[in-house]
Batch of 4 targets.
Target 1
Amino acid sequence: MYNNLTSLADIPFVVSTASIGLMDARQRGLMNPPAALASSLPLVPATAPPPPPPVPGPSTAPASAVPSLSPAVAQDSSTYQYQALDDVSASIQRSLALLHQLHCSVSSFTLSSQLTLLDRLNGVIKELSTMHSAAEDCHFQIPVDVIRLVDEGKNPDEFTKDLFNSCIQRNQATKGKVDAFKALRKHLLEEVEEAYPEETEAYRALRTAAALEARKMIQGQTPLANGNVKVKMEH
């Protein structure tokens, strides 16, 4: 039975099954609790759906009024978001466990298990509220293809694998084009050198001088933080 509850999409089915089981038991005369028992039953809160978030409009504040985050603050914010993501993941696991328990209660419903059923149903609602609150602190950009892959019941790691394979294939195709153009340039330069040797020598001298000038300009600039810039000499 636990394998049937692999996602939160099964919540309506479980709740509907619980309602049908309660109605069927009432029709058979199994649910006639006294007033004292009825008053002690926990009530399932009927919470209204949260209002939709406001649509952000164009900012009217000047650019100078927008505060910029320092690297330390940005790192703390990222760490806080990852902590919130861990909380959401733990809440999802707890929700799946509660749904499994609720499914067991609905499948083997009796009059004596009514309080247990309502208690577990309230536990699911409370855990979903906790999950929603924790998810408000998570601001991650997730590709739509990954969400679609998860909805299809596939492993999201397959998306990463396919993406890397696609990048490798495109990289190989681009490298093949670059090698083909290099071979064509070399062949044309050899043909031109046979027909116009003096012009070809002047062309190579100009290319060498331009490469040296570019190297001097780069060396005169401030070194970058990611290391020295190397210029590849081509003849």
Note: DSSP finds seven helices and no strands in the chain.
Target 2
Amino acid sequence: MKANISLAVIVIVFSGFFLIQAVRLPMGSVERIGPGAWPLVILCLMLILGVVLLIKELIKHKKHSGLQMDKTAEAQTEETPIEMEVVYPYKHWIVLAVAAGYVLVLPVIGFIVATPLLMLAAAFVLGLKHIGKLITLSLTSSLVFNYIFIVLLSVPLPRGAGIFRSLSIFVY
């Protein structure tokens, strides 16, 4: 509980400080997002979530301190740590290898083709086994990423080589 309160205060101070710095950056216009827009959005979200966490933990702390627990119940809750069994301890390394493979094939097959494959592989490694959900997740997330980077941010993405380049040019 104290750790969450400390974390909330740190997040509030951090985001508040950098929010002041981000306001000084140019925001851009309606047509083009400036360099200060995304930091402002992210820092505002961090500040809001930090305040929500702080309020939630203070309410929990107030309820907890208002209740009088007998010493036996308190001793039981303090001395019984929950041990969790790690089922697949190496999944993060597999996801890291998939991401490294994504970075390697990105210049060859392009963002349009590589991103759905990355999403598909990562979701599969992390435990999503239903083929319909895998395909839906990979295609939906790829469309969202394409829209964000290509349309909203106007970021030039790797188009790939050969037929993949032709496909990318056809799509955008």
Note: The first helix runs from residue 2 to 23.
Target 3
Amino acid sequence: MCTNCEEFRIFSISLDCGTHGSRHGLFSCVCNPGKTDRHQFFDTTISTNWTYEDYHTWFDSLKVNKNHVAGVVGDGLPAQVKGLCHWRPEGALFPGLQTVYIRCLNHVLNNAIVHARKQCPLLNELMNRVHQIIIIFKNHDMRARYKIRVPSIPETRWLYIYDTLFFIFDNLETINTALRSGDLPLSLSRATREQLQWTRDGIPPLFKDALMIFKLSHTEMAHQKGDIFGANNLIFLILSI
């Protein structure tokens, strides 16, 4: 637990949940907007299940002066983990505290990407082929041979599109050479190899068009920083395809 949270005097607590297998983690950060715009890591608690009552128990167990807590910020999106209870919008979670429910920008973008891929066959084809290229270069031998670092972000995250396109853009010549030479990992199954027959022709025109749009959007928005910079590039790319 962070030992300097009392230095904030009055602070807010922001929470999010993550899951690993059957275990759910509640991750907490504290912030005093009057002193800093950055949240500091506060606490993490792991459980096999989280219920409404569990949140009360967790809050009661915190070794902080509850009079210094100004409010609680909770995820306004429905929980996507079975058995995991997020904040209840029908009432304040803790008596005497303001509970604010917000929609996480990252979650909204994740859902937007899923919807866009369903509605746009061209975008879906692009991302399927991006994923196939990532599979090729995630192979240990391929990484060692070409000295490149492959993004490891889950495919369901919006940053997956951003980082994988960046990866292809930065290593375009190397990737094109490897694909044209038919240099595929020996560990790939026969079915996977058949799916990758298209790679013998190198990067397809679809990729080149998307990468050019990505390059232009990156140049236009290079003055921006942080996650919103990546989000703007991604949105610009999707709307331009």
Note: The chain has two domains: 5-103, 107-240.
Target 4
Amino acid sequence: MEKFEVKGSVMIKSNAAPEVRILDRSNIFSGGENLTNDILLFSSKNLTSEALAKLHFDVSYFASTNIKEIELYKNSPIKVAVDWDYPQITNRKIRIKILSDSTFRLLPGENMFLDNFFMSYKYVEEDRDIFNKNLKFGEEVIGEDAKFKIFLQNNSRQYDTYEFLLHTPSSLIDRYSNAIQVKPLINYGTVLEISTVTKIEEKGSDYINALMDAFLEYDLKEKNLISENALKFIEEQLYIVEDSLKSAEGSLQRFKVQNRMLDVNAEFGGVLDNIQVLEANIQAIDFELAYYNTLKSYLVTKTDSFEEIVAPSIVGIGDGLFNDMTMSLVELSMERRKLLSIVKDTHPDVKVLDQQIERLKENIFENIQNLISNTESKKKENQKN
């Protein structure tokens, strides 16, 4: 039987700017070791499941011939919609005889000796409660081990008898996750080539495309998660700044009333300018303290997932070393989560990541304590003035 190899390629993007890198998961996994994780992800059952959800591979359709097995794929005049919450007849072909544009009959088949050499799947031979009954297209077919609907899609059909076969979602995931080969393209850096061997070229091509789409969607979800966390944090801190501004305005208004001044700027313009500068400095310091305390609390409550951390550079805090450490923690945490979609948490690679994360977490926590202490001292100095 003729087989085809179909291929696709996907580029793992890389962003140079560190402030962009924290929002771009694809850059995190562009190194040699992390590229290996991307290769493993393509053949993981999680990504395979996402790809298959985009396709109608749970039913195979065949022309009914005595010569060879002909899978129709998208050329089938019928479509079967299966209820997988119900027991089904699987991995055995069921014959369908189209009686009219509105009715059909399901039939058993007969397995011949030569079928073992020319057919991939055997027929359901024994009688079932759904067989040899006049049934209607679009209506539910319910039996002891069957629950599905059959739709007639093409009235100008070539034959009156066809065959279909149901595949359980779990068996499809097992088969397709093992049927993928992924390798980096030489001299193309972070470009991965994804390939599979298939009997039907269009079907294989559809699966490769669905798999790459699922990968890119996973990638986008990771980026959006980090972006949403950054925006959420910034919005929360804006409320703190807004409260500080209201407090400063209230103090200024009370100063005017207490001193019976109509034009404060004319009488104390220079003094008020200095006060406003100090207030602005204190607000900026309060923002920094809020960030440090939020991050400190997060590190205390979280144990193994740190993707929600917002890097200091994203919120305008320019401590280079501290920024690098927090970004590294996010990267390691995301790498760990990605690895867990492929292996169990007892895997040696996961254990290595856990150790790296714990050491980095301790260093960040110690750094935060020092930053909080220094920032509080800076705030006191400003308040003295």
Note: The chain has a mean pLDDT of 80.
